[in-house]
């Protein structure tokens, strides 16, 4: 299809890049605005469940993603002290591969798939003013743009969310996460000492450590934690440097494999896990939100980015159904078809109960945002 009307996506993160790719492939005129001055390989590991790999298939990026990451057979949950398996979920058989990968590598794949003439860096949004027939955007470099609708994919501190609902600081969850990569000779030594699981979550009473490979060659191992912690003074930064000493203290008494992983890790960082309560509205006028701008969550279910990408797929379907002339209906359909699922994942993730005991994860992994029937506003299905 072709559309003369213009869409602006604010934020070129995982959700924004997915929305840009899907909408551009569907024939919409889409510009993506990112406040960072250039692309950088930030973050570390990320899970891409079958529910999300199906969307990469639609984006034309499935094969490339599979070449980048590891494809574990199962998500294994172990007792943090004894190492005993307490739950194990087969992640195969859901119509697509389960992939663990470096976030930066996946993000680079997404960003490179966009129309590069429509991707704009160094564009921090200052204001977005709605008119009857348009939205006027102004960026901090003095440039402006006129568009028909604006998709806020600009994260937990979303400017678009602020315009809809006013200023409100994120809520500190009471937990922090530590992140580190293990590679090179240190990983080889660790592999020689322990039979490392491809994808494992080590559980304790009030904390955990998730660990998995981020490359197809299994030459990079990553861990991320969830640990109760007093509020961090990050001085405006998203993360701080941590230390081996802090990690040993946080995981005292854990299994020797955990101690060895801490010893082998380099450049340990720590960041506060923030979230927000479910939003009362997902759109207003010509503005609509997706991903962390809409439903941020703690990362304990490995589905935060996944929900943003599912949002992008469903929003694209709804806009295709109505066309941009009827964006109001499209936004209502999008919220109707996404809110319950995103809210449930947000609640389970924040509670940190997913796969802590044996359970059927098909409600997460078997879902297909591209083929699930769209529930219509009047109750019909299409």
UniProtKB/TrEMBL annotation:
InterPro entries: FAD-bd (IPR002938), FAD-dep_Monooxygenase_BioMet (IPR050493), FAD/NAD-bd_sf (IPR036188). Keywords: Monooxygenase, Oxidoreductase. It comes from the Bacteria. Residues 6-345 form the FAD-binding domain. The keyword Oxidoreductase applies. PANTHER family: MONOOXYGENASE, PUTATIVE (AFU_ORTHOLOGUE AFUA_6G14510)-RELATED. This is FAD-dependent oxidoreductase.
């Amino acid at each position: 299809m072709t559309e003369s009307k213009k869409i602006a996506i604010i934020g070129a993160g995982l959700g924004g890049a997915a929305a840009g790719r899907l909408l551009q492939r569907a024939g919409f005129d889409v510009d993506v605005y990112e406040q960072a001055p250039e692309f950088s390989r930030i973050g570390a590991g990320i899970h891409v469940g079958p529910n999300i790999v199906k969307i990469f298939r639609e984006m034309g990026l499935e094969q490339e993603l599979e070449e980048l990451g590891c494809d574990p057979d199962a998500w294994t949950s172990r007792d943090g002290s004894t190492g005993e398996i307490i739950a194990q979920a087969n992640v195969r058989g859901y119509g697509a591969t389960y992939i663990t990968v470096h976030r930066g590598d996946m993000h680079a794949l997404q960003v490179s798939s966009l129309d590069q003439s429509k991707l704009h860096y160094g564009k921090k949004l200052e204001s977005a003013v709605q008119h009857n027939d348009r939205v006027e955007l102004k960026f901090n470099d003095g440039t402006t743009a006129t568009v028909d609708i604006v998709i806020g994919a600009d994260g937990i501190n979303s400017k678009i969310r602020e315009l809809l609902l006013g200023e409100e600081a994120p809520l500190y969850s009471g937990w922090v996460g530590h992140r580190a990569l293990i590679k090179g000779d240190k990983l080889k030594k660790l592999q020689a000492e322990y039979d490392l699981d491809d994808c494992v979550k080590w559980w304790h009473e009030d904390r955990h450590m998730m660990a998995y490979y981020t490359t197809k060659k299994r030459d990079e191992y990553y861990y991320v934690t969830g640990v109760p912690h007093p509020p961090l003074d990050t001085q405006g930064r998203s993360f701080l440097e941590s230390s081996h000493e802090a990690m040993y203290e946080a995981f005292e008494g854990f299994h020797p494999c955990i101690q060895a992983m801490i010893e082998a890790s380099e450049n340990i960082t720590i960041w506060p896990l923030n979230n927000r309560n479910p939003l009362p509205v997902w759109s207003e006028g010509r503005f609509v939100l997706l991903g962390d701008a809409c439903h941020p969550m703690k990362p304990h279910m490995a589905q935060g980015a996944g929900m943003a990408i599912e949002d992008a797929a469903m929003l694209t379907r709804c806009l295709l159904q109505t066309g941009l002339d009827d964006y109001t209906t499209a936004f209502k359909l999008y919220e109707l078809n996404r809110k319950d699922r995103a809210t449930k994942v947000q609640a389970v993730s924040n509670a940190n109960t997913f796969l802590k005991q044996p359970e059927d994860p098909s409600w997460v992994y078997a879902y297909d945002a591209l083929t699930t029937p769209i529930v219509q506003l009047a109750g019909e299905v299409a």
